[in-house]
Amino acid sequence: MKKMLLAGYYGFGNLGDEAILEMTLKQILEITDRENITVLSGSKEVTRRKYNIDTIDRYNVFSIINALRTSHVLVFGGGSLLQDVTSKRSIYYYLFLIRLAKLMNNRIVMLSQGIGPIINEKSKKAVESTLALVDYITVRDRHSKEFLESIGVDGKKIFLSTDPVINMKDHDFEYEKTDSLKVCFSLRNWKDSDVGEKISNVAKRLIDQGIECHFIPFYIKEDLQLVDQIEKNLGNKAIYYRNKLTTKEAYNLIKTMDLMVGVRLHALIFAAAANVPIVAISYDHKVDHFVNSVNMKIACTIDNIDENTLYEEIIEKLDNEVAEKANLQESVEKLRKLTNINYKILKEITNG
Q1: pLDDT computed for residue 352 by the predictor
Q2: What domains, with CATH codes, occur in the chain?
Q3: Cis peptide bond prior to 217, omega within 30° of 0
Q4: Labelling 268: which of 158, 170, 250, 336 has CA 20 to 30 A away?
Q5: pLDDT over threshold 90, residue 77
Q6: CA-to-CA distance for 311 and 112, rounded, in angstroms?
Q7: Which residues touch 352 (CB under 8 Å, ≥6 apart)?
């Protein structure tokens, strides 16, 4: 059986990326044995213990070279890896891995990729030339496919999929619905945005209506400061989750909610997978693309939050919860079928 090296933004404590790893591993383990998989991680010991899988330090070039010498397939398991907005180094790290893998005669698969934004022209050319070395690419939205084709990547090897986290489930988790309505917020800071103040004001109005407000940081390193700010405004009137949650704990917590107000993409995907209606505040096109894929619209953008509009959207969704859940479930089931292409490609490339 062929050996795989799995790459992504793993081991940094971001719930979204950890969920991507978890769901990608779940699919791979239907095809091959655990001992055939090695994961590149920013915290290799944490990832090794958590998933009982071989890991190497993603920054140790010598370890990566040795791993690629003995592996047959390099798999990129989802996320927004190819973009140059948050970091210009990041995109070249992943392009370097592709070229190194090809040098070591590995086949290369990119799964459920959200491409862009890629602003720099040199980066676009580097992506186009490097992706020519990749065997298969699946993307999580049509816009990513269209963008890759627009910069010259061969469309014949690009397939439409979706984010693997949409497949999250926990059939063993049971809970009793309480009388009080619960709204979950998963936020992030954004440039000079006053998101903390505005969300605090919206939450105050909800709390005055007897609605519980819960705040979950999906990436503690970046989001906890915003939770602190909101707690200063709301005090003990709201509920805050400061400890690092596992993906399962976060999913099961969200499952008990009546609504998710999300800025973080994967907070929205967790909620959709749990059939919890969503209200989306967009900070990036990837949020817009996901919301469109479940036949909804964003409530507002993060740099233009209208408190009244957001409050009214939340109340409207809560008032129509049954219909919202039915529509969401129908859309999610369609998305889940799109992840089948990832399985087919993995099976072909490991057995071929």
Answers
A1: 67
A2: 4-161 (3.40.50.2000), 182-335 (3.40.50.2000)
A3: no
A4: 158
A5: yes
A6: 33
A7: none
Closest alpha carbon to 70 in 2, 171, 163: 2
Q: Mind spelling out the 3-state secondary structure of the chain? A: CCCEEEECCCCCCEHHHHHHHHHHHHHHCCCCCHHHEEEEECCHHHHHHHHCCEEEECCCHHHHHHHHHHCCEEEEEEECCCCCCCCHHHHHHHHHHHHHHHHCCCEEEEEEECCCCCCCHHHHHHHHHHHCCCCEEEECCHHHHHHHHHCCCCHHHEEECCCHHHHCCCCCCCCCCCCCCEEEEECCCCCCCCHHHHHHHHHHHHHHCCCEEEECCCEHHHHHHHHHHHHHHHHHHCEECCCCCCHHHHHHHHHCCCEEEECCHHHHHHHHHCCCCEEEEECCHHHHHHHHHCCCCCCEECCCCCHHHHHHHHHHHHHCHHHHHHHHHHHHHHHHHHCHHHHHHHHHHHHC
Write out pLDDT tens, residues 86-100: 777 899 999 999 999
**d(Cα 194, Cα 64) in Å, to the nearest integer?**
42
Give ∠ CA 306-312-318 in degrees, rounded to 5: 135
Query: In terms of pTM, does the model score above 0.90?
Result: yes
Q: Which two tokens stand for residue 258?
A: 């009546």
Beta bridge partners of residue 74, listed in sequence order: 5, 108
Least Cα distance to 123 among 142, 148, 156, 155 occurs for 148
**Residue 249 is encoded by which pair of tokens?**
């704990």
Rounded-to-integer distance, Cα 142 and Cα 206, Å: 36
Structure tokens at 157: 């090897």
